[in-house]
Amino acid sequence: MTTQGYAALTLETLPSRLGEVAAARARLGEPAAWRAREVGDGNLNLVFIVEGPEGAVVVKQALPYVRLVGESWPLPLSRSFFEHEALVRQAARDPGAAPEVFHFDREQALIVMEFLDRHVILRRAMIEGRRIAGLGRRLGLFCARTLFRGSDLSMLAADRKADLALFAGNAALCDITENLVFSDPYRDAPMNRHTPGLDALAARLRGDMAMKRVAQHMKWAFATQAETLLHGDLHTGSVMVSDDDIRVIDPEFATYGPMGFDVGMLVANFLMAFCAQPGHASDPGARDAYADWLLEETAAIWSAFVGEFTRLWRTERAGMLYEARLFEAQGCGLGAEQARLERLAAIWRDALGFCGVEMHRRILGLAHNADFETIADEAARAACEARALEIGRVLALSRDAAPDMAAALETAREIA
Ligand code: ADP
Ligand code: MG
Ligand code: MG
Ligand code: MG
User: Fold this and answer.
1) Is there a single domain that holds both residue 125 and residue 110?
2) Residue 60 near ligand 1, beta carbon < 6 Å
3) Of 85, 191, 372, 399, whose Cβ has the fewest other Cβ atoms within 10 Å?
4) Could you tell me which NCBIfam families the record lists for this protein (predicted)?
């Protein structure tokens, strides 16, 4: 990995180093008057909010290592390149979903982008019990548009293959997912941790051969089924919300993979927010209505996904797959509709598996969720996490039976 010429920004050096960048200057005004603060709360990168006399921007810069762990865990700066490439594609495929990019510097691994000033991280909103109108629907639309339009259902085959080759360079980030999501939770890995009180459950899951097989089938799917360009890290910490706007940030894990991955990870994070609600309740039951709302929004993710995927299938199916010349042009639109339903069933089946694995790794692996971490009472936290572990297991193991979303949520409600 070459880091020649690269230097991490500091609060002190930022105005002089970005002062000459026309795109930043145009939005902020005179660099001498810029004020920067570092707000990165993620696991990997530096994020600065820079305010000037005329406006504000966000500057996100990769570090040559994993921020959460430190310099002992190197990670290529090129993830910033892939994040930028993914942001550009998402903006084209689902206009308005991603923050606008103003400037990208490959050597410095930095992106200057729109400051979402009215927005908060969705995970925080869910911890506070805040409802966001149209939340699940908007995220379902995002998934359908980006996943459909990044696939062979829509793209020219040669373009998609070139893009697949490009994103194959993001291997180091895939490696994190491959190990931390699909394998480490199911073994006694050095960086794992879990809440005291979960020892027995962790041991049981690590001895659960059926669950481990599903986890490895999902890893197989993630690593080999290059269906479309994924966001790759679509949890509730990668969504920012205001009262009237919903955005998706942080696609540095972008890679070609199975459509069910983004959908399943998102659903998992909604279900974990649901499981955490009793731990945030001031009085017993105080969050019940909010927990119900979370399940309604979880259902809305999938119904919006199905609706939009269907619309795109019928109106934008311009790629080499399921060609109209085989179906509609032969007077057999029904065949295309049946094929669509079969594809959706396969995506949902994958999503159930990815959902379960994501719920496990956030509780037993390295990277935990604030939904649970902010529950100060350890016994209460362990109780919430235990329910999430079980929901994840049941959903992952149910994927062959493929319960529909309503049945999956009924399972979640029963276990919780
Ligand atoms: P990481 O890759 O390290 O997880 P993120 O892109 O998730 O970094 O950003 C970390 C945090 O910085 C987010 O949780 C959010 O609070 C803030 N942030 C990131 N991008 C923006 C933005 N465009 N506008 C406002 N805040 C942002
Ligand atoms: Mg992040
Ligand atoms: Mg976070
Ligand atoms: Mg990130």
Assistant:
1) no
2) yes
3) 191
4) MTRK
Residue 7 in domain = no
**46 Cα nearest atom in ligand 1:** 3
Q: Is ligand 1 within 6 A of the CB of residue 252?
A: yes
CA atoms of 315 and 297, how far apart (whole Å): 26
- Pairwise CA distance, residues 79 & 170, whole Å: 7
Q: What is the dihedral of CA 251, 252, 256, 261, to 10 degrees?
A: -60
Average pLDDT over residues 158-162: 98
Mutate to test the pocket of ligand 1, among 44, 60, 77 (most ligand atoms within 8 A of CB): 60
Centroid of ligand 1 to alpha carbon of 340 (angstroms): 36
Neighbours of 362 (CB within 10 A): 26
Of 140, 330, 321, whose CA–CA distance to 227 is shortest? 321
Question: What is the separation of C-alpha 259 from the centre of its chain, rounded to a whole number of angstroms?
Answer: 12
Residue 367, both tokens = 């990277």
Which numbered ligand comes closest to the C-alpha of 368?
A: 3
Our answer on whether the CB atom of 198 is closer than 6 Å to any ligand 1 atom is no
Q: Is the CB of 44 under 6 A from ligand 1?
A: yes
Q: Domain tally for the chain?
A: 2
Instruction: Please indicate whether residue 58, judged by its CB atom, sits closer than 6 Å to ligand 1.
Output: yes
Are residues 78 and 137 both part of a single domain?
A: no
Residues 104 and 135 in one domain: no
Give residue-wise pLDDT tens across range 317-330: 999 999 999 999 99
Same domain, 139 and 267: yes
Residues, beta carbon < 5 Å, ion ligand 4: 42, 44, 250, 252
Site to substitute for ligand 1 among 37, 43, 45, 47, most atoms within 8 A of C-beta: 47
Is the pLDDT at 1 greater than 80, yes or no?
no
Nearest atom of ligand 1 to the alpha carbon of 47: 12
Q: How many residues does the chain have?
A: 416
In whole angstroms, what separates CA 153 from the centre of its chain?
22
Q: Note whether 85 and 199 are within 8 A (CB).
A: no
**Which residues form the domain of 29?**
14-114
Q: How many A from CA of 71 to the centre of ligand 1?
A: 21
Q: Select from 91, 114, 137 the last residue of a domain.
A: 114
Is 3 within the bounds of a domain?
A: no
Per-residue pLDDT tens over the stretch 194-222: 999 999 999 999 999 999 999 999 999 99
Please indicate, yes or no, whether residues 63 and 199 belong to a single structural domain of this protein: no
CATH number of 107's domain? 3.30.200.20
99 lines ligand 1 (CB under 6 A): yes
CATH of the domain at 287: 3.90.1200.10
Its ipTM equals: 0.97
Could you tell me if residue 106 is inside a domain?
yes
Percentage of the chain exceeding pLDDT 90: 96
